[in-house]
Design a protein that fits this description.
Chain lengths: ~325, ~400
């Protein structure tokens, strides 16, 4: 049975189906016609079709045998370049199936690689360029070192327009026989931040609530379907129940294995909805930024987030928050 | 040595631990080859080893004993115990109990073989195997734990220790006031062996023992030490003495760090104190990451200062109260959920490969929605499981971990 996740089910299978990104599709078609693909770097916001483009290229090149000729690997899941290199080496050594000259390695979330790892990757790319082509995927091309950028054709994926998103919604509506109110469509466009993956997820979750999807359903899903329980954690901290808040934090980071950065970003998103004096919110944002930076520099997420929670507790329980607390 | 001289010979002589003894007896009676071993655990000196020895003596079983320091390597274990296990079937005759003392003393890295050997013994032994440990929740004992019936040994109540000390005094012809014995019992916090040792130290060669005699006793190093360190950090108003307190315990700074982390909210009640204390700890953590990242050991000193003096100075004024300090949850949390987290990782990585993205994206972008859908339409879990080639209860991990 195939995976009934709409984001996957409605992922375009052919280049022509890709929503927008016409400028890239046109170039890529030429490469495929010539059967000559350069190393490529796809940069752009999430959910705009980067991975889909890579998979479509593979399908067009290799037909049914595309899976055997593509190595999908994800820099955020592979610990260190060593693993990546090992996998790449093994893959590059075997010959392409179905008479193709080279195989394709898709390295997703390449901006998760450290610059040392990228240096190593650059050598690997050179060593195996006769037998494999790389498609590197990232959100920000500025995080990719320039020697790699200069060896790849860089494609910038555009943020999708409202019209693009409507087109994608229409697809799913047709395929699933849905009935979606115009206000609900607007809500989805507002909530998805241009990310088609989120569009599909929102729709699929909302569709479980009833046959006619309303604006309320969409917002209900959006407020419930959040990674972890950041909202409750923050509320407990504000109410002075630090220990209970800390328990939730433990659960998110240890049991559910969420990344500290993802949790802290969600905290950032929710700051303005907290019951705090406006001035405290601004100071809190500054603190959140500081803690996120520390985590990104290798500090322990649990400790840093705990310190943030303790601070929120202090803000929440002292009215007005004492100005002297944090210079 | 009085601790040897007055070792319990019979089960009934072991102080307290009624439930534990019952449980052990029941386990032993029901034991057949291939069944679980018994893991007796609890703080030092409360009768774990004595109980096994007395039990063996009483039931006429031969006791094959080795402690952790003997189990250094696999070869050694196999030589000592492995042979006994195999010979068993040949000789038959008299039953045995195999006792492996202090399994938590097996170091993680270099004794990996030791742990494996212990597991092998449990699996293959023709005789019942008993293990003892002070801290059975240690991560490295995780697999061993699953092969054992856990039998907790409590701290022995002061009253029972006093009773035992009193018996010994009478047999030794020593006169000791009740409050002397009570004091010895209390300061040993449930450790009978420690109490008897203390009694011998102050009473040997004397006819009468008074409270003043107790002054010679130094403090025995163990958990009480970390409690003392915590109390100096939290109660002291001097930055220097808070900083120096860490030398009083034989524990690496990383571990002390987690003890402090666990107990800040137990001590500090004022939210501003709490916030300042955690900020000090968060800064200590930055220095720790510098040590790790750059192997710059000079930075360790700053980490220690911030987690001790820094946390100490976070309070406006000391809290006048008795604080019950707790063992760090963090260290335990990790080891207790190993299996679950492993199967969660498996589910996540299958989802990641089907959805062409990283497991991190699965966690943040997909799981919240999938969870929502499953809540609304429970049969979706089944579909998901079959598409991922998983059993339905494997998918259940999503529900368990995200409740």
């Amino acid at each position: 049975m195939s995976l009934e996740v709409w984001a996957e089910k409605y992922r375009p299978k052919r280049l022509d189906e890709i929503i927008n990104q016409k400028h890239i599709v046109a170039r890529v078609k030429v490469f495929i016609e010539d059967r000559n693909i350069p190393h490529m770097l796809f940069a752009g916001p999430p959910g705009t079709g980067k991975t889909t483009m890579a998979l479509c290229i593979a399908r067009e090149l290799y037909g049914d045998q595309w899976r055997q000729n593509v190595l999908e690997t994800n820099a955020s899941d592979e610990r260190g370049i060593g693993v990546v290199r090992g996998k790449i080496k093994d893959f590059a050594r075997t010959i392409a199936m179905g008479g193709a000259e080279y195989r394709i390695i898709v390295l997703d979330e390449a901006d998760a690689l450290t610059s040392e790892a990228q240096q190593a990757l650059r050598r690997t790319m050179e060593t195996y360029s006769a037998t494999v082509r790389f498609i590197l995927i990232c959100n920000y091309s500025s995080k990719i070192i320039s020697p790699i950028q200069s060896r790849t054709a860089v494609f910038r994926f555009r943020t999708l327009s409202e019209e693009d998103i409507r087109k994608f919604i229409g697809w799913i509506v047709q395929g699933e026989n849905l009935d979606v109110e115009e206000e609900a469509v607007k809500a989805i466009i507002h909530l998805c931040e241009g990310d088609l993956r989120r569009v599909a997820n929102l729709l699929q979750a909302a569709a479980t609530l009833g046959s006619r999807i309303t604006e309320e359903m969409v917002y209900e899903v959006a407020s419930q379907a959040k990674p972890g329980d950041v909202r409750r954690m923050l509320q407990l901290a504000l109410d002075g129940r630090f220990r209970d808040a800390r328990d939730i934090l433990y659960k998110m980071l240890v049991n559910q294995g969420l990344a500290g950065e993802d949790v802290i970003r969600e905290v950032h998103r929710q700051v303005y909805g907290l019951d705090l004096p406006e001035e405290a919110k601004v100071r809190l944002v500054e603190a959140i930024g500081e803690y996120e930076f520390r985590i990104s520099e290798g500090a322990d997420s649990l400790i840093q987030l705990e310190a943030l929670l303790a601070r929120i507790t202090a803000y929440g329980t002292s009215t007005p928050p004492s100005r002297g607390l944090w210079r | 040595m009085w601790t040897v001289k007055y070792k319990p010979r019979r089960l009934s002589e072991v102080a307290d631990q009624r439930e534990a003894k019952d449980k052990l007896l029941r386990w032993l009676k029901a034991w057949k080859p291939g069944e679980k071993a018994a893991l007796l655990y609890g703080p030092p000196g409360n009768g774990k080893t004595c109980t096994v020895e007395a039990l063996a003596a009483e039931m006429g079983l031969e006791l094959l004993e080795m402690n952790a320091s003997d189990v250094r390597t696999r070869e050694r274990v196999e030589r000592v115990i492995g042979r006994a296990i195999k010979m068993a079937s040949l000789l038959g005759a008299k039953g045995k109990i195999i006792l492996i003392d202090e399994v938590d003393g097996l170091g993680a890295a270099d004794d990996r073989g030791g742990i494996r050997a212990v597991m092998k013994i449990i699996r293959e032994s023709a005789f019942p195997v008993v293990l003892t440990a002070n801290d059975p929740w240690d991560r490295k004992l995780y697999e061993v734990r699953r092969m054992c019936q856990m039998i907790p040994f409590k701290r022995v109540p002061v009253r029972d220790i006093v009773k035992r000390l009193d018996q010994i005094c009478r047999m030794e012809g020593v006169r000791a006031d009740f409050n002397v014995l009570h004091m010895i019992a209390t300061r040993n916090k449930g450790d009978v062996r420690g109490a008897i040792l203390d009694l011998e130290t102050v009473a040997q060669g004397k006819i009468r023992v008074t409270l003043e005699d107790l002054d010679v006793l130094g403090d025995r190093e163990r958990e009480t030490d970390i409690f003392r360190v915590l109390s100096s950090i939290f109660k002291s108003t001097s930055a220097l003495s808070a900083k120096l307190s860490i030398d009083e315990v034989d524990m690496n700074p990383d571990e002390v760090f987690w003890w402090v982390e666990e107990n800040i909210p137990n001590e500090y009640e004022n939210p501003e104190d709490l916030a300042r204390a955690y900020e000090a700890l968060a800064k200590a953590d930055i220095f720790r990451s510098r040590v790790v990242k750059r192997q710059n050991w000079r930075m360790l000193g700053y980490m220690i200062d911030l987690m001790t003096a820094g946390v100490s100075q976070a309070k406006e004024k000391p809290y006048r109260k008795f604080t019950r300090y707790q063992r760090p949850k963090r260290l335990r949390f990790f080891s207790e959920t190993i299996v679950e987290r492993k199967s969660l990782r498996e589910v996540l990585s299958r989802l990641a490969s089907c959805l062409h993205c990283s497991t991190r994206k699965v966690k943040t972008e997909f799981l919240p929605f999938l969870r929502y859908i499953i809540r609304q339409k429970p049969d979706f879990a089944e579909k998901l499981a079959s598409a991922l080639n998983l059993e339905e209860d494997e998918i259940d991990i999503l529900r368990v971990f995200y409740n």
